[in-house]
């Protein structure tokens, strides 16, 4: 991976996201002073090839990390973070590839990171929200955050958010090798570790939009892991 143009890197894991990726990447680099790292898990639909075309089009802004197969969201982010740290980025962001996390909010996260060590895009603070979710999905998400917040005694409203901006010092302090959680649990885990190490965490509002193209990666297994993993974090 060649040197980038900016001091912030957005890590975007992909698996079958060829419909969303081109417009997401173009909007990101037009909207914010960031570089983009696509971490593709050998998508059967050819997302990796689409990512390579974008990297050739924007050689100083877009980079691609190809992995052998579907190895999980948590490991994808950790691989992206390691790459960004090795390349010297000051800020490392994580976001979904399906436009549920919209690029227009990225400048807000970057601005907040000038005062906070970890910035969380939050659906559940004033100004945040969700669009195109049914009652069951909203209940699951809000209930999951409340469940984790209560058990871990953390003053964070949206613990399951996957829209984040880390200062490099946070990721350097976290023992990434020991992080084995995925999905919702992965998001809770990193925030819990950061706060346990004394880093400053700030929530900023954003509106979450349900994906338009492709299929959701949510599953019962992801929810079940989060339910049990929170107790392991509590007694870690």
Protein model, in words:
The protein is an alpha/beta fold and 236 residues long. The protein has a single domain (8-234), classed as Spore Coat Polysaccharide Biosynthesis Protein SpsA, Chain A (Alpha-Beta Complex). It is built from eight helices and nine strands. The strands form two sheets. Strands 3-2-1-4-7-5-8 form a seven-stranded mixed beta sheet, with helices on both faces. A two-stranded parallel sheet has the order 6-9. The radius of gyration is 16 Å and the shape is globular. The termini are far apart. The relative contact order is 0.16. The model has no long low-confidence stretch (mean pLDDT 91).
Oligomer category: single chain
Cα separation of the termini: 36 Å
CATH architecture: Alpha-Beta Complex
Order of helices and strands: EHEHEHEHEEHEHHEEH
Computed CA radius of gyration, to the nearest angstrom: 16 Å
Class by SSE composition: alpha/beta
Strand order of the largest sheet: 3-2-1-4-7-5-8
CATH homologous superfamily placement: Spore Coat Polysaccharide Biosynthesis Protein SpsA, Chain A
The count of strands amounts to 9
Mean pLDDT: 91
Number of helices: 8
Low-confidence stretches: none
Number of domains: 1
Shape: globular
Share of residues in strands? 15-25%
Helix content: 40-55%
Q: Provide the CATH topology.
A: Spore Coat Polysaccharide Biosynthesis Protein SpsA, Chain A
Main sheet properties: 7 strands, mixed
The CATH class is: Alpha Beta
């Amino acid at each position: 991976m060649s040197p980038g143009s900016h001091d912030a890197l957005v890590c975007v894991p992909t698996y079958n996201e060829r419909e969303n990726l081109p417009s997401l990447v173009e909007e990101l680099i037009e909207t914010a002073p960031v570089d983009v790292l696509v971490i593709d898990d050998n998508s059967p639909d050819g997302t990796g090839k689409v990512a390579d075309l974008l990297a050739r089009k924007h050689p100083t802004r877009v980079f691609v990390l190809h992995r052998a197969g579907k190895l999980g969201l948590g490991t994808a982010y950790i691989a992206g973070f390691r790459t960004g740290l090795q390349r010297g980025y000051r800020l490392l962001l994580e976001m979904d590839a399906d436009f549920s996390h919209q690029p227009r909010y990225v400048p807000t996260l970057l601005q907040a990171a000038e005062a906070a060590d970890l910035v969380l895009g939050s659906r559940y603070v004033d100004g945040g929200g969700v669009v195109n979710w049914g009652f069951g999905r909203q209940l699951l998400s809000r209930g999951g955050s409340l469940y984790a917040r209560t058990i871990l005694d953390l003053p964070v409203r949206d613990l399951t958010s996957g829209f984040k901006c880390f200062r490099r010092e946070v990721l350097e302090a976290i023992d990434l090798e020991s992080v084995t959680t995925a999905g919702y649990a992965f998001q809770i885990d990193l925030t819990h570790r950061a706060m346990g190490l004394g880093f400053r965490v700030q929530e900023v509002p954003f509106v979450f939009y349900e994906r338009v193209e492709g299929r959701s990666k949510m599953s019962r297994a992801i929810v079940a892991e989060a339910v049990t993993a929170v107790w392991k974090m509590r007694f870690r």
